[in-house]
Amino acid sequence: MGWADTAFFARVYALVRQVPAGRVVTYGQIAGYLGHPQAARTVGWAMRAAPDDVPWQRVINSQGRISATGRAPDDAALQRAMLESEGVVFSRDGRVDLRVYRWEGFYSD
DNA sequence: CGAATGACCAAGC
DNA sequence: GGCTTGGCCATTC
Length: 109
Hints:
Elements: H1 7-16, E1 25-26, H2 27-33, H3 40-48, E2 59-60, H4 73-85, H5 98-101
The structure holds a DNA duplex.
C-alpha cells in the first residue's frame, strides 16, 4: 500500500493506537505532541487513510464534535455509534465533554 | 516543482 | 454560544 507509509503518518497512527477505548483525543492534540501544533489538518488527512488497526473513531475536533466536513454523513454517524458503544456519552447537541473523556496518557503521568 | 486539497484551529465579531 | 477568516502543514496532482 502506498498510502500511510510516510514517517509522519506512521507517528500519528502510533499515537492513536495508544488511546484506550472509551477515551478520545483531538486532531490538534496529536499534532502538537508530534511537534507541529498547527498541523491538525494533516492529522485529519491521515485519519482519512487510517489502516484498520487504528482506532480513528477516537479522534475528534477541539470542540468535542465529530468532524463532518466533506465526509459521508454515514461515516460520521458510524463514528459516533462506535464511540457510544465504548461508553462515550454525547450531550444533547452531539458533543463529547473533553474535560471528561480527553486522553492525555502520552505525556508522562 | 508550483498549486491545490482537506475528518483543523485560534482569534475576532 | 455560533459564524467567518486567515494560516498551517504534509500529501497529491
